[in-house]
Design goal:
The protein folds into two domains: 199 residues, no CATH class; 95 residues, no CATH class. The chain is 46% helix and 19% strand. The chain is built from nine helices and twelve strands. The strands form two sheets. Strands 3, 4, 6, 9, 10, 11 and 12 form a seven-stranded antiparallel sheet that branches. Strands 5-2-1-7-8 form a five-stranded antiparallel sheet, with no helix packed on it. The longest helix is centred in the first third of the chain and has 36 residues. 27% of the residues are buried. The C terminus is likely disordered.
Length: 337
């Protein structure tokens, strides 16, 4: 075969290869353009060493997790706009670095910082929730939630590498915030020191919808806006405001009587009382307010056994314990902490 013939035979292959490369380059450019377009509309958790003072001015931004604002949805509590975060597998945040994390919008503008030591930082609180069945969390991962002022932003994280028996013991002891110690201090200085391989997974960021109405109007495409509003309105119509008011009253009364238990311990206590009231036919304020107060006081002194004793007294012909369990399950499904 002649040299000229051989080159001619290769020309289609060379052309195809060049076309493939051009297509690949075009795809990369398109992806980069989309990423650049999407960055201002993302909610991100980024690293900010020493509040940004120790970050390399010319280095890459370390993004731990992000989510598109417009992909969010109204939470179970429809007063909140919930954005699910996707983890960046290339940048895993160690628990020891939790203080160096900022929640940012618009490409890097911070709206909340997890550094509780900053002198001018907005106040925020945190709670070690443990396992939350409502969100399907299982295994050894421990859920922790934070609430930031002044615009009430919520962040939910999971801590991996902190053994279940260890965080369960912390919850039961209920003293991780003693002497006004911040929960971030406890996690970084105590837990991360004891379990240096522990890592953080950022799950969701939630905004109070009323505080971001401008963003909800401007950033959501028309069809998406219509869908989420319809879903929100449907769920609001299904909610019973009387039940919500009863939950709120019981929770406030428990706190006012001195119940300072952390959320992980408080929620089951509240659910027990609500389950008892439901079993007794009390589903709103004004039906039997005296019984509501008696139930709160009894549970405070005698726990679930005291409520079962009252139930047995009023319903002697029924299996109090089984019905109480059924009502407890119903209350667990309805309760929004």
């Amino acid at each position: 075969m002649s040299e000229e013939t051989s080159i001619s035979d290769l020309l289609p292959l060379v052309a195809a290869a060049l076309n493939d490369k051009a297509a690949a380059d075009a795809a990369k450019e398109l992806a980069a353009a989309r990423e650049e377009r999407d960055i201002p509309r993302k909610v991100e958790v980024i690293r900010s060493l020493n509040n940004g003072g120790d970050e390399d001015e010319d280095g890459d931004i370390v993004v731990y997790a992000s989510g598109m604002f417009e992909d969010g949805q109204y939470a179970r509590n429809t007063n909140l706009w919930d954005v699910t975060l996707e983890q960046n597998s290339s940048n895993i945040c160690s628990l020891a670095n939790l203080r160096d994390c900022h929640i940012c919008v618009g490409g890097g503008f911070p709206v909340a910082s997890l550094d509780h030591t900053l002198p001018n930082n907005a106040t925020f609180e945190g709670w070690i929730n443990g396992e939350d069945r409502r969100q399907g969390i299982s295994g050894d991962a421990c859920e922790v939630s934070f609430c930031f002022c002044p615009h009430t932003i919520w962040l939910v994280i999971l801590i991996h590498g902190w053994p279940r028996e260890a965080w369960e013991a912390v919850i039961q002891e209920d003293d991780y915030d003693q002497d006004d110690q911040h929960v971030v201090h406890f996690l970084v200085e105590n837990v991360a020191d004891q379990y240096p391989d522990a890592t953080v997974e950022f799950k969701t960021v939630a905004f109070v919808a009323g505080n971001i109405h401008g963003a909800l109007k401007r950033l959501l495409p028309p069809k998406r806006k219509e869908e989420v509003r319809a879903d929100r309105d449907r769920r609001n119509a299904e909610n019973d405001p009387e039940i919500d008011a009863l939950y709120d009253f019981v929770a406030r009364a428990m706190r006012e009587r001195g119940n300072e238990a952390n959320v992980a311990l408080f929620a089951p206590q509240l659910n027990s009382i609500m389950g008892f009231l439901s079993a007794m036919g009390v589903d709103r304020l004004g039906v039997n307010d005296e019984l509501i107060i008696v139930a709160i006081a009894t549970h405070e002194q005698l726990g679930d056994e005291g409520l079962r004793a009252i139930f047995a007294q009023f319903r002697p012909d029924e299996d109090a314990e089984n019905e109480d369990d059924e009502q407890q399950d119903e209350a667990d499904n309805e309760y929004e902490a």
